[in-house]
Batch of 2 targets.
Target 1
Amino acid sequence: MTAPHTAAPTTGRNRWIEEWNPEDEVFWRDTGERTARRNLLLSVLCEHIGFSVWSLWSVLVLFMGPEYGVDAAGKFFLISTATLVGAVARVPYTFAVARFGGRNWTVFSAALLLVPSVAAYAVMKPGTSYTTFLTIAALTGVGGGNFASSMTNINAFFPLRQKGWALGLNAGGGNIGVPVVQLAGLLVIGTAGAGHPRVLLGVYIPLIILAATGAALRMDNLAPVRNDAGAAFEAARDPHTWIMSFLYVGTFGSFIGYSFAFGLVLQTQFGRTPLQAASITFLGPLLGSLARPGGGRLADRHGGARITLWNFAAMAVATGAVVIASAQGSLAVFLTGFTALFVLTGLGNGATYKMIPGIFHRKALAGGLTGEAAAARGRRLSGASMGLIGAVGALGGLAINLAFRQAFGSGGTGTPAFVAFLGFYAACAAVTWAVYLRRTAPVVAEPQPASSPAVAGPRSAAGRS
């Protein structure tokens, strides 16, 4: 057993912790867990608000009636613009944690959400130019960047054995910002009417101030997490960063793409009114968000790669049902299949993200490192890779929105887009099996549970304990 450690007290107004070793069980029990959970709680709140702001335009387009002069293709492009900027912002946000400190950057990034929210409040009315709407939609993308910095920060706080749960809870609490803002939009449309989008924006501005203030007062910076450009370049050169990016396109890209587009699909393909669409839109993202921590828990117990494989297979089946429903115009079957897809994207998000720290930790062990040295290298590279993986995954949401825009623009139906998504999920399942589950696979994504028969099988050097 490693000698007990205690976290150095935070000093000054920037609340820096000088020593942090979550793999030390004594340290974790005495001081580490309590501090990590407090930071996790505030991180979830700030990321939650960030996701709500990022997905604002999935709701605001429902308020945009004929008097706004924007057709369905133009609305899909607005939400695509928000998705794109949010995806790109994730890369610098990842490294900002190490450069400025997790607490400091959380305060700044939360406060930055005021810019697009106040701007949207000022311009959200008929007669505003489409270029102005497009600019404001781009500004909301900063909310998407919050995910990357939040996940990188929380990854450093928790030990490997709890990362699936912690990252799943952090991301799930953030993801749930999507259905919450959609539910808030439903309440506004149902009470004030579709002509009052500013009511929705007026609710979020004080919430942003509250989240930033809470982070400033109660979160901490970890001094051991230093800016390390070498880790970023090393992670970018590692093929597993890009393999996991591909898989994350299938899970998170689907979640955010469907979340942003669901209401518009219901309006465009099934003729739902804004109130009818809003009354359904929030349910899928809500269930997907709630499922994400469950995916992390399942991955902790059974292995992220195994859960990810079966999840992609189930996503392909659900998408097949949606294709049939879309072609036949069956709203009931469509909603059932789409809701199942949302739940599966949430489970898949938790499982795939659990794989990331496990992969780099196992590679460190295979390279001859042991104990805290292996754990530290795993944290270093997995933290650096998460921003890249999160950014590429979010670009999957952009691809989904553009696919819908093309499908509806050319044929008036989303069926061709769903057929393409079905093929992609099949490819994701094949990659997961080939790279991480074959007996001759080059690396195992995480240590298998002791009860798992997978432990007994021969592995390559990177996969052996």
Note: The domain at 35-463 is CATH 1.20.1250.20 (Growth Hormone; Chain: A;).
Target 2
Amino acid sequence: MTGWLAIAGLGPGDDRLVTPEVTEALAQATDVVGYIPYVARITPRPGLTLHPSDNRVELDRACAALTMAAEGKRVVVVSSGDPGVFAMASAVFEALEDRPDRQSLDIRVLPGITAMLAAAAHAGAPLGHDFCCINLSDNLKPWEIIETRLRHAAKADFAMAFYNPRSASRPEGFARALDIFREECGPDRLITFARAVTTPEERITTVTLGEASPDMADMRTVVILGNSATKRVGRWVYSPRRAG
């Protein structure tokens, strides 16, 4: 039996947003590997072994998946959203760097709808012009780098989408980010908080930077900061295509 490894995105939460390509890979898989809440979304069936694991063990998961694929198993590594956006695709390739004997494996990255795009769609079109995406977690990079990127992106007048804005263990980071945005962009810039997007708990809130507070975000929230031309139209928010 020839093994393979698919790194798949399960989308932002609603099962209807899982792509047919990912559904097909899961139907063919012998093993599914991933973070506990994501593996919980996979329906058990005969012939399928689920391998849930805790957070912050991405490289261990990647190594285990590569080993199983090398043994001839059909393995799907699952991420939420898109696996290439702050997720497991990078971890798998990082693990692969140290294993040249496994670099000929059949490995595929199957894209998914990431939370940033789902949030933007439910808010309107706040990413309708040039934008950037920044992970506000300082687990894998120092805060100094994050702050430098935030300031440069604000000065360049990008719309910005932020993942992992505020955790219980580091609430001060997002408060500092809001202060930076007020310094660089002023109090009137529109900012959208999209929590639990595409799930029954979804909540979309758009306010100005002057009205924003750190407790409006948590780890289930994607935050989108508009550029200088972003505006409201009815209940929607959008960035004009001719901005800048």
Note: The chain has two domains: 4-113, 116-238.
